[in-house]
């Protein structure tokens, strides 16, 4: 089944954005989006008051302009939610150019306000010429600020969508941990073997063997338990680095690694190692060919 967002908007600069209810609310309530819509609408409505010679003070004209700008923002917010609701009822959703929505907003807001001015202030401005002048001015300014909206707000919306938390039940993958070994940063996933030899600790990574100052225990604690385990008091090995597991008569294990190195597995840890290896293979977590077990 094809998943289609209920509303698709096409801007003058060629940008396209598909919205559901959540994305529409996010876009329309973004502080910058609110500012652009209210600011542009307020400028036009204030200029219209002066052009029509409405008998109010300049302070009242600015207040009226701000009020009508806020009213237009509410109109666009409600209109977007209505369009999304209608888009859910259709198979392919609703696809509209933003200039058409802007023109609808101008007609639904400026024409009624022109009528109110004419009636309240008893002005002879309820004429086709006055209506055309107001609509053209508002629409021209709208087109300019529409481009600004597309350039500024749409990237913010895309960034906010990318930063959404993962849905419940789908954990976000954790970043690969890194270890600082004697001043060198090493990705934990590259470590294949840690070996303790009396007072010395060696880390095998990327085909290299490094002598480090950290203790064996601290290194083991820092590594991901799903990547490998401590199989002996002196050895930690990555599951993916084990090629073959051979049982020993005393109940311990002999692990043959991919570089043909053989390391011991303590009897006390043999069962846990087998279970971890089997569980990893069954869950498909192994990134390479799973180790081949001998007869246990």
Automatic annotation (TrEMBL):
The keyword Protein biosynthesis does not apply. Residues 184-279 form the HTH LytTR-type domain. It holds the Pfam family LytTR. InterPro entries: LytR-like, LytTR_DNA-bd_dom. GO terms for molecular function: DNA binding; phosphorelay response regulator activity. Keywords: Membrane, Transmembrane, Transmembrane helix. PROSITE patterns: HTH_LYTTR. SMART domains: LytTR (SM00850). The chain crosses the membrane at residues 30-52, 58-84, 96-118, 130-157. This is LytTR family transcriptional regulator. It comes from Ruegeria pomeroyi.
């Amino acid at each position: 089944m094809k998943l289609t967002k209920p509303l698709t908007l096409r801007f003058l600069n060629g940008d396209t954005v598909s919205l559901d209810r959540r994305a529409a609310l996010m876009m329309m309530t973004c502080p910058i989006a609110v500012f652009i819509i209210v600011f542009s609408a307020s400028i036009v409505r204030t200029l219209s008051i002066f052009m029509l010679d409405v008998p109010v003070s300049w302070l009242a004209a600015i207040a009226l302009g701000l009020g009508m700008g806020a009213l237009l923002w509410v109109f666009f917010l409600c209109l977007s939610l209505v369009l999304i609701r209608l888009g859910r009822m259709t198979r392919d959703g609703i696809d509209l150019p933003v200039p058409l929505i802007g023109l609808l907003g101008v007609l639904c807001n400026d024409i009624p306000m022109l009528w109110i001015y004419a009636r309240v202030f008893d002005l002879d401005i309820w004429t086709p010429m006055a209506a055309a002048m107001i609509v053209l001015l508002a629409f021209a300014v709208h087109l300019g600020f529409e481009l600004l909206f597309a350039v500024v707000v749409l990237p913010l919306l895309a960034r906010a969508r990318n930063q959404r938390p993962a849905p419940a039940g789908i954990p976000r993958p954790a970043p690969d941990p890194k270890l600082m070994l004697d001043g060198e940063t090493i990705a934990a996933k590259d470590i294949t073997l840690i070996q303790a030899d009396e007072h010395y600790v060696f880390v095998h990574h990327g085909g290299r063997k490094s002598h480090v100052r950290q203790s064996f225990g601290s290194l083991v604690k820092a590594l991901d338990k799903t990547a490998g385990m401590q199989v002996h008091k002196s050895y930690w090995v990555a599951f993916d680095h084990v090629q073959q597991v051979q049982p020993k008569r005393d109940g311990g294990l002999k692990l043959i690694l991919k570089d043909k190195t053989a390391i011991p597995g303590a009897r006390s840890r043999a069962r846990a190692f087998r279970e971890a290896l089997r569980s990893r293979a069954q869950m498909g977590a192994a990134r390479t060919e799973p180790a081949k077990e001998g007869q246990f």
